[in-house]
Design goal:
By secondary structure, the protein is an alpha/beta fold. Helices cover 23% and strands 20% of the residues. It has 2 domains: 1-108, Ribonuclease Z/Hydroxyacylglutathione hydrolase-like (Metallo-beta-lactamase, Chain A, 4-Layer Sandwich), CATH 3.60.15.10; 111-181, no CATH class.
């Protein structure tokens, strides 16, 4: 667990299904998890830093360890409405829409597709698109993501938190703007 900026904690853990390390975040003041996977050392750290009340999924594939957080802390899990069909009755997830205010005062923007659309494979490496094999229509998908990322880069923010790869701390807006062209 590393505090990458004031009030933003980051960790990685091996995803058991896909076999790669994935990133998760915790905002203790807001008591909000983002794409949580259980840390290697377990969930006790969260008891000491104010237990979470909510988990936000940047897309429907990032439920990860939410079940453990629900069981231990009673968190409410939130996912964009378009992804709700992914969840069975045993995984209660609250839908949200683009433009909604989320727990902790966070905002939902369409460009949250950055969750899996763009990644950072190597520490210190560049922001890149996921491989074409993960897209139905790679060129059209990339262009659509660029349009969304340009809109997001017009907002005021400093950090770009990635679900796959090291976050961009302090340079997120500039990196995303350059990547989107």
């Amino acid at each position: 667990m590393e505090e990458i900026a004031p009030g933003i904690w980051h960790w990685t853990a091996l995803h058991p299904r896909i076999g790669i390390r994935v990133s998760s975040y915790y905002l203790p003041a807001e008591r909000v998890l983002i794409d949580p996977i259980a840390p290697v050392d377990g969930l006790d750290w969260f008891e000491e830093h104010g237990p979470p009340t909510d988990a936000l999924l940047t897309n429907r594939h990032h439920y990860r360890s939410c079940g453990e957080f629900v069981a231990r802390f009673g968190v409410t899990v939130h996912c964009v409405r378009e992804g709700i069909h992914e969840f069975s009755d045993d995984r209660h997830v609250e839908p949200f829409d683009v433009g909604d205010e989320l727990p902790g005062g966070l905002a939902a923007h369409e460009a949250l597709a950055v969750a899996d659309g763009a990644v950072r494979w190597e520490p210190g490496g560049p922001l890149v698109f996921v491989p074409d094999r993960y897209m139905d229509d790679p060129e059209a998908t990339k262009e659509g993501l660029r349009v969304s990322y340009r809109r997001l880069a017009s907002l005021e923010f400093r950090h770009l938190l990635l679900a796959h790869g090291e976050p961009f701390v302090g340079t997120g807006r500039a990196v995303l703007g350059a990547f989107a062209g």
